[in-house]
Structure formats: structure tokens, C-alpha cells
Amino acid sequence: MKIIFLSISIFAMLFFQACATKPVDVKWTITYPSYPEEPKILYLNTYRGGSKPDTTTALDLFLGESTRDNKSMNIIKPYGVGLQDGKVYVADSGSDIVFVIDEKTRDLSLIGDGTRGRLASPVSIAFDKSKNIYVSDSRLKTINGYNKDGNLIFMLGGKLEFIHPTGIAIDRSRNILYVVDTKGHQFKAYDIATKKHLYTVGKRGKGDAEFNFPTNIAVDQRNGNIVIVDTQNFRVQIFDKDGKFISRFGNVGDKPGTFARPKGVGIDSDGHIYVADSAFNNIQIFDETGQNLLLYFGSAGYTEGRFRLVTGVYIDETDKIIIADGFSGRVQTFQYLSEKWKKDNPIKYAEVKNFGKPELEKAPEPKKTKE
């Protein structure tokens, strides 16, 4: 069932203002939009790092393995993000590793800090149908694949294959990996099982299926459509599963529906397209065609629900959203309140929907009349 969002006229008045209640340290209270509008996006949590047990042995030291101790490690400069099986994945270009943080315990493990499969400049994260983790590395010009234990099981690329690989996404039903080559002004498709190159789309330009430093990518798991942020053309382009151009939307500007520095992109279970803009420090949500702006959330700031240099976006199969807050050295999670989520969580939804609602004054007792 199609949801109804705020009208565009409201966006025009409020575009650069906060569109949430004042953040407070109470669970289930930061919503977008805030009361009296029906909430669509719910703030969940913030992650800045975690604690990693020290399992380094003398042999590890001799072989050059990680010597990180069990002190708390903080995220420095997050970009690519992901969510899988209760774990938050963060490609941290500041420390050149991928953080894996348990949502409940905050325990930390790392990917890409070992001798084999060591990362140099991780950018983006994706997951295949077997729940393996793929990471693009712009410095090594490779796509590395790791199993759930962090062991390297896949490698694709090199300087002859990519100029500057950044955004990656996987069509899980078709087992196809898509890689955005930012400085090549194109994206490429590969069969994961065989590593066979399937096709390449793009060259530098402003026309349909042309790019000017594209960055991030997402796949609509419902139909295989590919959505790519064409960053320096200030727009988003949509392709079908075979790489054929469908449509594009957006242009440079400071009004709702326009972009100044678009980066991350994600797609929820209803096909809505979420585009992060690191200049506006917000997320704009469009319908599946991109022609209609439905909602935006976020603004500049350091409190929960606000951003400083927002970058990567990822939405999992339960419509949980994770967003990289680059300058603040943290990632934040949110929930899209789909019809399914509301049906599955009626008590929580009632609490969320009524937060901020003023208590009704007690009705005065009727005056007694003389008989």
C-alpha cells in the first residue's frame, strides 16, 4: 500500500531547518517528521566504535599481523556502511579498516587488518546471498570479498581493471556485482561466481548513461534496477538489470529535490530512493521513479539525528537504515516505518506515533442542575 508523505510545499519552507523534535536521551523519541505529522523515519542508535579483545600472539607479531590491543577503538572517517545479522559494518577510510560492531553488545571485530586481504583505502560495502562481505579499495583498485570470519575469499580488479573503484552493490538474486569506477566515469557488472565481466556502462559527459565522477550505487532487490549517484552532474541515474538507461532525476541547486554534493544512496523495500547530500547534511527520499520528492530528514549538527558531512547510506531487508556521518566520526541507524513494520510492531508504533502529543486537559465535570 502506497504511503503518503508531507507535501512539497512544506519542504520548501523547512528544507534547511531541523525536521525533528529536539533530541533527548529516550528511546523511540526522535522521528521524522515529528508530531503532529505521521512519523515515517525513526532514529535508533549511534555507533562510534567498540572494544576488541587482544588475541595477538608472538607468531602474529612476527608475521606482521595486527597488534591492536583491547582498548576501545573509535571510528575516524566513515564512508561506506552496511548492516547484516545484527552487525554494523563501517568502511573507515581514516584507519583503513572495516569496523564490525555488534549492535547489542558493542563488541568489535575488524576486517582488512590481517596479512592476507589487508585493506589500504576501503570505500564501500556490499553483501552477497551467502552473506559474504565485499569491500572496494580505491587505493589498491580491488574489490575484496571476505567470509563472516573475516577471511579473504574473493578478489577482483587491479590497476588494469579499475582507475578508482568506489561504490559497489550486489544483486543478490542474480549474484551480480556492480562496481562504480569514479575516475573512469562508468560502472561495471560482474558475475560473482566466475568473476566474468558482463558489461560496462558510461563515459564522461552530461547525457543519458554518461557520468561526471559517479560515486555511490544501490540495487533495488525487487526488480534489479540499478541506481547510481552521478555526483558532479548533481543527479541520480536509474538503469535496468541489464544496464539499459531508464531515467534520471535531480540537478544542482539549494531547493528540495536538487543536489549540491550527493553521495550515498539506498533503496527501501517499497522502492523509495534515499540520497545523502554532504553539503545539505540531510537525506532526501524520492519515489521509485525519482520524479517525486517524498520526505527529507536531518540537518547540520552533532546531536543524534543530525549530520556533519553525511556520506554513505545502506538499507537492509528489514528497512533498517545506516548512515555514515563522516566529519563526526560516527554512524547512525534509523528505521523506515513501513506498513509491514507497523503491522509487526503495533505497540512500538503507537508509542512512536504519539510521542510529542500534548496531553488532553481533563474535561470539566458537568454542572449539577437543581431538580
Comma- or semicolon-separated keywords:
27 strands; 5-stranded antiparallel sheet; about 375 residues; single chain; 4-stranded antiparallel sheet
Describe this structure in words.
The protein has helices at residues 8-14, 58-63, 339-344, 346-354; strands at 31-32, 41-47, 49-51, 72-74, 78-84, 87-92, 97-102, 108-111, 122-127, 133-137, 142-146, 152-157, 165-171, 176-181, 186-191, 197-201, 217-219, 226-230, 235-239, 245-249, 262-267, 273-277, 282-286, 293-297, 310-315, 320-325, 330-336. It has 371 residues and is mainly beta. The strands form seven sheets. It has a five-stranded antiparallel β-sheet with strand order 1-2-27-26-25, with no helix packed on it. A hairpin with a 5-residue loop joins strand 7 and strand 8. The radius of gyration is 22 Å and the shape is globular.
Topology, please?
Elements: H1 8-14, E1 31-32, E2 41-47, E3 49-51, H2 58-63, E4 72-74, E5 78-84, E6 87-92, E7 97-102, E8 108-111, E9 122-127, E10 133-137, E11 142-146, E12 152-157, E13 165-171, E14 176-181, E15 186-191, E16 197-201, E17 217-219, E18 226-230, E19 235-239, E20 245-249, E21 262-267, E22 273-277, E23 282-286, E24 293-297, E25 310-315, E26 320-325, E27 330-336, H3 339-344, H4 346-354
